[in-house]
Amino acid sequence: TFTNEAVSIDDGPTNLLFRAKDKRHLDKPSPKGVDPSKLGKVDFSFHLGEATMKKIVEISSMNGLDNITLKKDGQTGSFKIKAASLGNNNKLSNVFTVDMGYPQNLGKDGFELVFKTENLNLCLIDDYDVDITENGRAIFKNKNKKIKYYVASEP
Fold it and tell me: How does pLDDT run across 102-120, given as a tens digit for each residue?
């Protein structure tokens, strides 16, 4: 629920209230919702299980890891999710990596998208099917609830 002062997310007996210090920081969604035609075509999809998502969010939080990178390994061809801080090439950062295997239609070698960890922290910890679009957006589709999260990658 969006108000002029906060965003409230209710999930059964739990509630999370996000407050902004300045009303200009609250973006209200369009009453029409997200226009799927502006997201681009889906390049590939993968499943992000609840246990894996929980690990990513918890370890990122405990270690101050502010970037989540989705990357195709150029050597093995496997798909990895990496959490790191202070930029992905920082040699001093703690790094947490999850090997997600070999999703179909993964695309070209060297594929890499970076997301801010704080954007994924808004998602409920649960099972998701994730679509990655050609223009760098991720669509997290909750498998247990009628919820979708649209997350843009960083430039």
Answer: 666 666 555 678 888 888 7
